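Translate sequence into structure tokens.
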Amino acid sequence: MATKLTRRHFLQTAAAGAAGLWTGLLPAADKKPSANERLHVGTIGTARQAEYDWSNVAAAGAEIVALCDADERWTGNARKRFRKAAFYSDFRKLVEHKGLDAVIVATPDHTHAVATLAALCAGLHVYCEKPLTHTVHEARVVAETAAKHKRVTQMGTQIHAEDNYRRVVELVQAGTIGTVREVRVWCCGKPWGGGERPKEKPPVPAGLHYDLWLGPAPRRPYHPDYLPERWRSWWDFGGGTLADMACHYMDLPFWALKLEHPTKVAAEGPKPNAETAPLWLTVSYEFPERGGLPPVKLTWFNGTKRPAAFGEGDVPDWGAGVVFVGDKGLLVADYGNHKLLPEKKFDGFQPPKPTIPKSVGHHREWVEACKSGGTTTCHFGYGGMLTEAVLLGNVSYRLGKPLTWDAKKLKTNEPEAEKFLYEHYRKGWSL
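Result follows.
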């Protein structure tokens, strides 16, 4: 790795740096391609979500010049598309690729921080998939490092760029449903979690560099239950449905209500399993007053759980969504739709004139900012803060206790929580 940021160093600097980290968009580096030059991008991860990312970045005019994947079985499409690009199996080699300007990090969660920090410390701009990191501490370190090096960053919450979210934000901030003090968020699709560690020890498939895929995670025998699909279910690699989906759905209330750090977090679910995430989970977050806005209680539901009846009209039976509870009505939204309730009360309602400009696209926004020195809407200052809040739900659940949270000090009232706030890196992979 290009740098080592110890826990002691972090605790010495976190309080001083946190206050200014979230307040503005991150500036671009002084050294950047001109507007007429193509941005040279490397992609860490090549298939599935990674393919979605590099396809959009390439469509935005960037040139993919280097590819990296620890599992060569899934690199076919990328190799065919970018025949002249260099290929690596170790991202630490990719970030040293000559002439590289920026990287995409689209790997399992447990390698987000180590790959992102390697890129940032090599002077590269970064687009990283959500959640930004695997642990709360990593999110803070990544955000601070991006700010220090003045890199252009974007977390992969692409729904943030869609028109529907923008209209919902405008409605909330215009006071359409009055003062909002409560939000309920649910995601009832296929859950990630459950199960015990496999006992079988099948051979590692040809083309899979399994030790590189494990990266900072504790060593364990290969099993297809871990990759390519179910890694989100295992604590060593992911964080279950909460880590997978909450950055998308909680992004909307974070944006609309200008939320920052919660002060209290309490999770409820089945009996914690040391190996895997829960199949259902509810998490209650309490956010304090900020800038004259009232405190907010936000509750997350996933798996078989969803909010109870609201008493303000029929909430659509969507598989996932967000309900803003105002003192003048409800506003319910998912990725592509929103609805004011009760419908009779808002019959004939005319929405306010749009104030948030139409997005050029989540990936294109990042590409253009890298070239122009502009800004992004989901930079790591914002994305890191959102990720911290999301992951605190898993910390409370795994600990089995509610938490009081001190964001400046990165501390809880429960000392035992520290083992879930910090990553435990395998030798050779520490930050």
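Note: Residues 163-193+240-341 form a domain with the Dihydrodipicolinate Reductase; domain 2 fold (CATH 3.30.360.10).
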